[in-house]
Amino acid sequence: MIATTTPARPRGRLVQAVVRFREAGIILFIVVLSALVSLRSPAFLTAANFNNILLNIAILVIVALAQMMVIITRGIDLSVGSMIGLTAMMVSFTVVALPGLPFPLAVVLGMTLGAALGGFNGLLVARGGVPPIIATLGTLSIYRGLIFLYSGGTWINAYEMPPGFRDIAKGTPLGVPNLILCALIVAGAVYYFLSYTRTGRDIYAVGSNPDAARLAGIAKERIIFRVFLISGLLCGLAGVLWASRFEAAQTNTAMGFELQTVAAPVVGGVNIFGGSGSVLSVILGAFLLGMINNALTLIGISPFWQLAVQGLLILLAVLTDSVIARRLQGFAGRRSR
Amino acid sequence: MVPQSETPDSNPPRSVRRTAARSAGATGLLPTLRRTAVRWEGLLVLLILIVTLVNSRLSPFFLNGSNLLRTTSDFMELGLMVLPMVFIIITGNIDLSIASTLGLSASLMGRLFMSGWNIWAAAGVALLVALGAGLLNGVLIARLGLPALAVTLGTFSFYRGSAYVLLGDEAARGYPAAFTYLGQGTLGSSGIPFSLLLFAVPALIFGLVLHKTTFGRYLYTIGNNEAAARYSGVPVARIKITVYVLSAMMAALAGFVLAARFGSTRPDIGSGLELTVITITVLGGVSIFGGSGTLVGAVLALVLVGILRFGMGLVNLQGPVQDVVIGLLLILSILLPQLGRMSAARQTWRGVALLRPALALGVALLFGLFFFWSRTLILNRP
């Protein structure tokens, strides 16, 4: 047991150093960028605008955290956008058909449906031995197609939604919009889960060294199944929030969202090869993406630039990671010699 | 060196594969792999025949030479991108930016054309920019050693974003007939679409390069064991860069064909095609982990997807519903051989308690019931 963990330790410390460095780097980047933008647009550094950015990234944070857990196990979940769209549609249909349904039940329904979809992904990957990228590429198409089969091409409009449904996301019973509260709760729960529960620790173990994890008696398949299950569960939650926030469910809801949920962790410094990743990194990555989109609009740059800037940001993040990792490895190498 | 190529899937640990081979009564690894490959491509041919048969029963217009030829022009741009994707995936990498490169080059061409350029000059410049885009991918991945998935995710956004910056909410149109011939024209009175020829020639070249040249063998070597390839003197970085440049070049070509077929260009042209291209490549038996696959398999998968879509169009299935079938096909193509291997390798698999499968089945059943019940609530309302 000790013999297997000891050689891995320096690498673990190295990874942690990179993560700390990256988090500090992003915070610095955010501060400098905020200062620059606020010089051009005084509306930027206001509480209302901050609230706005948080509202815009809340759903992204929830799903990106799920995506991060999958990525830590060396997987990827490309079907998140389709799972959000399908649960949003099914929950919207249900609340419209049954206006008396209590809204907490609608949230539970969404999460249950999402968990079923995520569980199917998990079965394919963990029990069926289908590589994650292939399995979720397939279910991306399947779940998206199910939305069409389900709705027959129709959609749910704002006026059809039962009154009060929008408050699931937009209500402010505690002074803060529920959407932001939800993201905070999920972030807290994921942090606790990854840091203090056995399954959470096993997720890192499976991702950083699958062979060692197996020798240590961790059932890799079970962990991977659970990670996909959780991803579906959180996508179900995100689906309900999405339908409530935009007061609509369409066949193209959250189409292409999967790439943003990968972008946020990557920008935040989560290693795409698995084994590392923190809740703070994902939140910072998502915040940076949201902030830049917001800033571009405020300083009057055409929204057509958003996608290009996001791409450059991802490239910059990946480049930075590799430079830092190489430097640190250089130090470590010299010291050990 | 382990003889590579020609297995649809080198994913399971070698021990499992060997066990499977042994239990199948095979004498060595190589013949088994060969047989798998033949079986794989044979299976694709069989599927194509079945779909053709079903299609011809569905519509009397299907088995008609000129109709069949005409439909091929609907997926030739996919084919153009599948060819380099086979190379990339065989080296164990991936290119998510391929459809964005298509969008960038088509949009740049459209932009230049709208500002008065000659269409061929505009296409030439767009092709050069696409080559630059491929070079950027290649250099970041091969020279700087960055992960292909992350790099091409970044350039996926960057190139598509650049297309939006170039065209905004405009559409470039009014291309001359000589240009739209690329996507709409036929060879004389034969009814053969020009785009089919535009695909067939590169397909032949890519096939020869992959299976008959040193370069092609290097691709498999890199995919099987990159470190070993480097130590045996394979110019790994240069080959990877070449492959990404090739990919961008074919994407640009596909962009021109698509723009010619539509007769116009909008910045979202071809978006989402990267996933279809990867699906076809994997369906064709190219292992996502690299090191194996054939070009013939990928082309067969392209034909299969093409006629399957055509047939589903005949019975008026919507595009996204067609995607369900393609998605299922993709998953089953990997799942079934895997399950077969597992049951051969692990006898205990059969001994697993029935509780979990029953639970999964129950969940699926409940989901299905709710799916249809809640659906009728809305769709049958007055």
What would you note in describing this structure?
- The complex is a heterodimer of chains A (337) and B (382).
- Chain A is an all-alpha fold and 337 residues long.
- Chain A is built from 14 helices and no strands.
- Chain B is an all-alpha fold.
- Chain B is 74% helix and 1% strand.
- Chain B has helices spanning 14-23, 29-58, 65-72, 76-90, 98-114, 119-143, 148-167, 177-184, 194-212, 214-224, 226-231, 236-262, 273-283, 295-314, 319-345, 348-351, 355-379, and strands spanning 172-173, 264-265.
- Chain B has a two-stranded antiparallel sheet with strand order 1-2.
- In chain B, helix 2 (29-58) packs parallel to helix 14 and helix 4 (76-90) crosses helix 10.
- Mean pLDDT of chain B is 85; it is low at 1-27.
- The chains are: A mainly alpha (337), B mainly alpha (382).
- Chains A and B meet through helix 4, helix 5, helix 6, helix 12 and helix 14 of A and helix 7, helix 13, helix 15 and helix 17 of B.
Which helices and strands appear, and what pairs or packs with what?
The complex is a heterodimer of chains A (337) and B (382).
Chain A: H1 2-5, H2 8-40, H3 47-72, H4 80-97, H5 103-127, H6 132-151, H7 167-170, H8 178-196, H9 198-208, H10 210-215, H11 220-246, H12 257-268, H13 279-298, H14 305-336
Helix pairs in contact in A: 2-13, 2-14, 3-8, 3-11, 3-12, 3-13, 4-5, 4-6, 4-11, 5-6, 5-11, 8-9, 9-11, 12-13, 12-14, 13-14
Chain B: H1 14-23, H2 29-58, H3 65-72, H4 76-90, H5 98-114, H6 119-143, H7 148-167, E1 172-173, H8 177-184, H9 194-212, H10 214-224, H11 226-231, H12 236-262, E2 264-265, H13 273-283, H14 295-314, H15 319-345, H16 348-351, H17 355-379
Antiparallel strand pairs in B: 1-2
Properties at a glance:
heterodimer; A: 337 residues; mainly alpha; 14 helices; 76% helix; globular; disordered N terminus; B: 382 residues; two-stranded antiparallel ribbon
Number of helices of chain B: 17
Oligomer, anyone?
Answer: heterodimer
Q: Give the fraction of residues assigned to helices of chain B.
A: over 70%
Please report the total strand number of chain A as a whole number: 0
Main beta sheet of chain A: strand number and arrangement?
none
Structural class of chain B: mainly alpha
- Shape descriptor of chain A: globular
What is the mean pLDDT of chain B? 85
Rg of chain B over CA atoms, rounded to whole Å, is: 23 Å
Largest interface: A-B, 62 and 63 residues
Helix and strand content put the structural class of chain A at mainly alpha
Number of strands of chain B: 2
- Element order of chain B: H for helix, E for strand: HHHHHHHEHHHHHEHHHHH
Number of helices of chain A: 14
